[in-house]
Every structure is written in structure tokens, then in C-alpha cells.
Amino acid sequence: MNGGAPRAVPAPRDPDATVLLAVETSCDETAAAVVRGGREVLADVVASQVDLHAAYGGVVPEIACRAHLESVGPVVERALADAGLGWTDLDAVAVTQGPGLVGALLVGLSFAKAAAWAHRLPLVPVNHLEAHLSAAYLEGTPDLPLVGLVVSGGHTALYLSGVRGRYQALGQTLDDAAGEAFDKVAKMLGLGYPGGVAIDRLARQGDPGRFGFPRPLHRSPDLDFSFSGLKTAVRTHLARFPGGPPSGNDLADTCASFQEAVVDSLLAKARRALERTGARTLVVCGGVACNGRLRERAEAMARDLGVTLVVPRPRYCTDNAVMVASAGWFRFHAGVRAGPDLNAVPTWPLERLDG
Ligand code: KG4
Ligand code: ZN
Question: Ligand 1 test: best mutation among 151, 152, 260, most atoms within 8 Å of CB?
């Protein structure tokens, strides 16, 4: 990749006018977005691989990798076409560098590196967790400090952010992520993959108080989470239905009771984090932040504590490239640039953003 030095960009235009192409391939969505000024969405394309992985009940890394290879070019072309822009209209390319599945990440990274080199654009690496949190900045400018609860299929963690771009880890899951628990319980209930949406829908008709599932680590003073014991409790509960997964009210009540246990666990620790830090804003983001009951209960808790709740719209909670553009825009203006040796970082804690 000799000769791939970024073109000499004079100080970028007015930050509000800079246009970024962002690419996201960390898990099972191939996504590209074109965003102006870190917030104005000109294009937002997501090619989901859910159908390819559903038969296996989870993401199969090799399949994800191959599907990204097929989709990444067309998805980026579609994003540029939707935005009505060409490569010369862009100021930079942002790409998810990690955390995520290494093979999946490498597809997006290779594409972004090649495109940035060919079009002489600066390349901006983005942390996927920072991208999830940066979805909050698409909804407005949050009052800092904020407590961020990232709840997705791969992560469940609490962060404190006193200034944009800096994060202190407050707690995290010691075993399964909340989304993983939703997906595993949905699988036990025969609801298909990914199961969060199905549980959310069925729980609306159910009684959240009927089955007393555990709230692991609820009383421990730390800010960590645990969901594997809850998953086991659901499995034990299902043994009461020898004919197969429950149906009707039993199914709805199981979903509602499980969901309530997850929401209680998440919000108990979020409340404690807010009280301890005195933060003014709670951000809830990641795929599980689409959950209706979590949104409703987080709203009530925030009102009670007198803090502002920011939950990005559902499209920006599940994996997408607009949130990558939001984080990338901030990093671009903070002077972050990557060279052609940029590599995937499958495990990349948010509090170690700067190495
Ligand atoms: O953020 P995301 O798209 O991917 C990761 O970075 O992991 O999150 C996907 C996760 C899946 O586990 C999915 O079941 C869960 O988010 N999810 C939900 C809901 N919608 C998506 N969980 C509960 N309720 C929902 N409505
Ligand atoms: Zn994600």
C-alpha cells in the first residue's frame, strides 16, 4: 500500500460540514452510512444476515465473514447513491476496528483501507462500543457527565463519561450479555433467533410477577451484572412443562417474568451508578435498548432521579453505521487517523481507547 498516504487535507472544513462514510462489519450486519456534521444522516444502509444465521441459533463467524465479503461493496455503493454523493465529496472514511468477530471486522477494515487509499481520504478507526454510546449524540447533545448502559448481544456494561470521548468502566457482565440471555431463553422457548424481539412482543400480554426468577448480583454493592444464573433458572422452570415449551398464558408469563428480571438487574445497577456519580444523563444503547419494557422502566427511573434519559431510536440501537459515523466524526476532529497497517482488535475495552 505504498503511496497510500492520506491526501493533504488542509484543516477540515467546518466540522458541521464534514462528510464521513462509515463502514460497520463487526458482527452480523453489513452497514454503511454517509453522515454530514456527525449528525445529519444522508444515507443509512444495513444489510442484515439474520436469515443466514437463524438456522444455527446464533452467529456463525465463517458465514458472517463470507456474507460481509459479498455485501460490503454493494452496501457502500448504495449508501453513496442514496446520499447522491461521490468519493470526492467525502472528507474521511470511518470504520469499526473492534471489538467484534475478527474475520468480520477484517472485511470492513480491508474495504475501508483500500477505499481510503484509492480515494486518498483519511481513515478513522472506531471502537464499536463508543459507536453504540455515540448514538446518543444523534439525538441531541447530552448533558455531561453521563452514565452509559451498553446492552447488546455481545456486551453489557456501564460507563461514566465526563467529557465526550473519555470513558471510565463502572461495571460489566461477568458472564452472558443481556442480549445473549434474551437469545438463549428465546431459543429454549422455541421462539427462533434472534429472540429479543419475540420475547419483548409476547411479554406485553404476560404477567411479569407470575414467576419469581432470580436477580443475580442484585444486592452486591458493585456495578457488575450476571445473567447465566437467570438463564439456568428459566431452564429449570421449563422442566415444569414436560410436553415442550409452554404456550398461551404460560408462555407470555414466562417471557414477561424473565424480561422483568433482566430489566430489574440492568436498572438496579444503572440507578446505583447514577446515584454514586451524580451524573445528569443516563444513556441506554445497544440492541437490547429496543426493548419496550426497558425503555418504559428506564423512563420512570430517570424521572424519579431527576436525570435526563437518552435512548436512541431503535434503528440506531441495533448495529448500524450511522453510530460509527457519529463516533468517527468526533475522532476525526480530535485528529485520530489510521494508516494502512490498521488491524482488527477483537477485544478492545472502551476505557483503553487510546491504547
Ligand atoms: O447491538 P446489537 O444489534 O448487536 C450487538 O452488538 O450485539 O444487539 C443485538 C441484540 C440481540 O441479542 C437481540 O436479541 C437484542 O439485541 N434485541 C432485543 C430487542 N431487540 C434486539 N432484546 C430485547 N428486546 C428487544 N426488543
Ligand atoms: Zn453492537
Answer: 152
27 CB under 6 A from ligand 1? yes
Tell me the average pLDDT across 49-73. 90
Residue 49 Cβ inside 6 Å of ligand 1? The answer reads no
Residue-by-residue DSSP string for 134-168? HGGGGS--PPSSEEEEEESSS-EEEEEESSTT--E
DSSP state of 107: H
Reported as type and span, the H/E element at residue 110 is helix 102-118
* 5: confidence class by pLDDT, cuts 50, 70, 90: very low
Q: Is the pLDDT of residue 13 over 80?
A: no
Place of cell 458493585: 222
187 alpha carbon, closest ligand:
1
pTM of the model as a whole? 0.95
Query: Which helix (H) or strand (E) element contains residue 328?
Result: helix 322-333
Assess whether the region 7-134+317-352 and the region 143-311 belong to the same CATH fold.
Answer: yes
Give 55: exposed, middle or buried? Use CB within 10 Å, 0-12, 13-18, 19+. Answer: exposed
**Could you confirm whether domain 7-134+317-352 is CATH 3.40.718.10?**
no
Half-sphere exposure for 293 (CA within 13 Å, toward CB):
26
Query: What element of type H or E holds 308?
Result: strand 308-310
Task: Measure 350 CA to ligand 2 centroid, in angstroms.
Answer: 13
Task: Give pLDDT, residue 1.
Answer: 38
Residues 6+ away with beta carbon under 8 Å from 64: 27, 28, 49, 53, 101, 103, 104
Average pLDDT in the chain:
94
CATH topology assigned to domain 143-311: Nucleotidyltransferase; domain 5 (3.30.420)
Q: What is the pLDDT of residue 3?
A: 37
Angstrom distance (rounded) from CA 72 to CA 127? 19
Does the C-beta of 211 come closer than 6 Å to ligand 1? Answer: no
% of the chain at pLDDT higher than 70: 96
Longest Cα separation, the chain: 69
